[in-house]
Design brief:
Blueprint: H1 23-32, E1 37-41, E2 55-61, E3 64-70
Parallel strand pairs: 1-2
Antiparallel strand pairs: 2-3
Length: 71
Amino acid sequence: MAPIPTPPAEPQDSPEGYVGLEAGQAERLARERGWSTVRSLPPGTVITMEYRFGRLNFEVEGGRVARAWKG
């Protein structure tokens, strides 16, 4: 039986720190801080509930991050 893989470590970064930033600036900053995947979504977008290590999600409204969360 194969061993259970250990997920990679996520950046020690608070998603709340991105709220209010311009979307492009927030995406660049997140990548610089080590997030492997950065996803910008309009408000109300239907998404799956799967959790992906290393992914940071942004809800973007009016060109600015209104909400940010891991996974």
